[in-house]
Design brief:
about 130 residues, mainly alpha, 2 domains, two-stranded parallel ribbon, 2 strands, extended
Length: about 130
């Protein structure tokens, strides 16, 4: 009887470990999709990044040219399709290193996005669904 219990516990532990090893995205929540709708605010981690890196230009008191692309002061007013489109465009621009602009990077070296931050933004953008 003891052998059956020990074997069952060992098998369950092995199965759990195998699931974690061979499917780490599910275990860490990387595949979790985030629903968007009008009025959806940016998640806290994304908002901290945006405040530090983007809102100098992309906010109500920022550059008019930048606000035409995306205005984070009005993000929650964007409909779901627009939020998804803008989020994916942000990922693309960050990945190409075209945002933030070179002049801003030179003047704000401590706030230049790191590869980990860019990855975070892209994972967030790809996880948005209507």
């Amino acid at each position: 009887m003891k052998k059956i219990i020990v074997f069952s516990l060992f098998s369950a532990s092995f199965l759990f470990a195998a699931l974690l090893i061979f499917n780490p995205q599910t275990a860490t929540g990387a595949r979790k999709s985030l629903p968007v709708a009008p009025g959806t605010e940016l998640p806290d981690s994304i908002m901290k990044f945006v405040q530090k890196t983007c809102m100098d230009c992309h906010a109500d008191d920022g550059s008019s040219m930048a606000k035409m692309k995306v205005n984070f002061s009005k993000w929650s007013g964007y409909d779901a399709d627009k939020q998804i489109k803008k989020a994916n465009a942000i990922c693309k621009e960050l990945t190409k290193n075209s945002m933030p602009p070179k002049k801003w990077r030179a003047n704000n070296p401590d706030n230049v996005p790191t590869p980990a931050q860019i990855d975070m933004i892209c994972r967030w953008a790809k996880g948005l669904v209507k």
